[in-house]
Design brief:
N-(1-d-carboxylethyl)-l-norvaline Dehydrogenase, domain 2; 12% strand; Rossmann fold; binds ligand FVH; alpha/beta; eight-stranded mixed β-sheet
Length: 291
């Protein structure tokens, strides 16, 4: 017996299975559905209720968590059961763009469905463990109603009523992650030409990158004030450093595809006459210009 409310999880891939497991272990009566039926077997053995159809799954709970590959799959699954979803809350955990989130939120509103969008800042083993964070935006009343449940998956962070905000923030953080890993791989390719293993390089790269993240607030100040005045780390100085990195990479037989775009952005700032200003000014070459 439990006083926890029922929850439905649609989509039992690597993430959905972990999410359902955490909810089940916390005592939520959990209904599960997955396109490939056998992926639910383990959860059913642990006490989850298997739904034979998506309609049956959503009818089982006031809170429906969707965690599938993409928004196209989500819409394919949810649109035929809009009537059953009316009056319930859908939390879309699937990764997508802010526009997709806003469009799905508009569809949900038309059908009387409370809609919360989410960005999952966690990998499957992190779900329900320290370090896991889930970002949310959309229907604030629905989020508040189920916040305690959502906190089981990871720290629940609220971003506002615009359903696209959680996704925007999620993708912004992922951009930082991808470029960091890509930078590490470029460095590993460079030292690899001298016989250094990636494992050996990882230890040094980790120390260096950790030290560098301390400078993020400093970079943010340039961006937020729009004042890039500096007497260190100028565009000119960094353009020369990137020229050396690109040349050294090519000399070692390493393609410069990952670092050359940074060199190019610096070259643009230099050409526009900003050589004495801070490196961080390259953001001006990529962000939308004021109308
Ligand atoms: N795995 C990760 O590390 C990251 C963490 C951050 C967020 N991403 C996003 O989370 C979404 C789900 O990712 P996942 O890791 O659970 O993905 P898979 O293990 O590949 O499972 C995909 C599930 O989607 C089902 N599915 C796919 N297409 C359809 C469809 N047309 N109709 C119904 N279901 C569909 C698939 O079903 P099946 O193949 O088992 O039958 C899985 O349940 C995702 O947006 C990541 O970008 C993950």
């Amino acid at each position: 017996m439990t006083d926890r409310h029922p929850v439905t999880v649609v989509g039992l891939g690597a993430m959905g299975r972990e999410i359902a497991r955490v909810l089940l272990e916390a005592g939520h009566p959990t209904t599960v559905w997955n396109r490939t039926r056998s992926r639910a077997d383990d959860l059913v053995a642990r006490g989850a209720t298997r739904a034979d159809t998506v309609g049956q799954a959503v009818a089982g709970s006031p809170l429906v968590l969707v965690c599938v590959l993409d928004y196209a799959a989500t819409r394919e699954l949810l649109e035929p059961v809009a009537a059953e979803l009316a009056g319930r809350t859908v939390v879309q955990l699937t990764t997508g763009t802010p526009r997709q989130a806003r469009e799905l939120a508009a569809w949900a509103a038309e059908h009387g469905i409370a809609y919360v969008d989410s960005g999952m800042m966690a990998t499957p083993p992190m779900v329900g463990r320290p370090g896991s964070a889930f970002l949310y935006s959309g229907d604030e009343a629905a989020f508040s109603r189920y916040r305690e449940t959502l906190e089981l998956l990871g720290t629940a962070r609220w971003f506002g009523a615009d359903a696209g905000l959680a996704s925007l923030y999620d993708l912004a953080l992922l951009s930082g992650m991808y470029t960091m890993f890509a930078g590490f791989l470029h460095g590993a390719a460079m030292v690899g030409t001298a016989g250094v293993s990636a494992a050996e390089f990882a230890a040094d790269a980790g120390d260096w990158l950790r030290a560098m993240t301390g400078s993020l607030p400093h970079a943010a100040r340039f961006v937020d004030t729009g004042d890039y005045t500096t007497d260190v780390q100028s565009v000119e100085f960094n353009k020369s450093a990137l020229d050396v990195i690109v040349q050294a990479s090519r000399d070692q037989g390493v393609a410069a595809d990952l670092v050359a775009p940074i060199q190019e952005l610096l070259a643009r700032q230099l050409a526009e006459g900003h050589g004495k200003e801070a490196f961080d000014r390259i953001i001006e070459s990529i962000r939308p210009r004021p109308a």
